[in-house]
Amino acid sequence: MRRKPRETITPDITPLIDVVFILLIFFIVSSVFKKEELALVLNLPSSKAQELEVEPKEISLEISKDKLAIYGKEVSIEELDLKLAEIKDKKKNIIVRIDKDVIYEKIVKVLDNLQKYELNNLSLVTKKD
Q: How many domains does the chain divide into?
């Protein structure tokens, strides 16, 4: 009795590789790359100052004529006070975007709140001239 040579059974992995590539392409195409969370449409004043890199862990504050936003979410002046009280790291950068038509009194109120919680590391954002 003669034995047949034993064949090794190997699974065909080509379909598996195809599925993996299709999933990879799906996730790349469907992912959203977050830029900045901005809640208000602002008309920023222009400046000739040099650009600074914005880090994602910075505090983003926006002020328009009738609205206020922190971290991309609209808040009232009282809610802003509560949000600022929650900040533990006093050396965090605060990126402030102020519409050029905002009255000075509103800006002073926000700056007073920042000073109250010793958040003094401010950067004012302008559009490039």
A: 1
CATH number, domain at 63?
Answer: 3.30.420.270
Name the pTM for this structure: 0.58
C-alpha 49/C-alpha 76 separation (Å) is 30
Spatial CB neighbours of 96, under 8 Å, sequence gap ≥ 6: 61, 62, 63, 110, 122, 123, 124, 125
Say if 7 falls within a structural domain: no
Q: Give the CA diameter of the chain.
A: 102
Q: Sign of the C-alpha dihedral, residues 14, 15, 18, 23?
A: negative
Residue in 4, 111, 94 with CA at minimum distance from that of residue 57: 94
**Domain extent at residue 89:** 46-128
- Residues 86-108 pLDDT 10s: 888 888 888 889 988 889 899 89
In a domain, 27, yes or no: no
List the one residue out of 36, 69, 30, 40 whose CA is nearest residue 53. 36
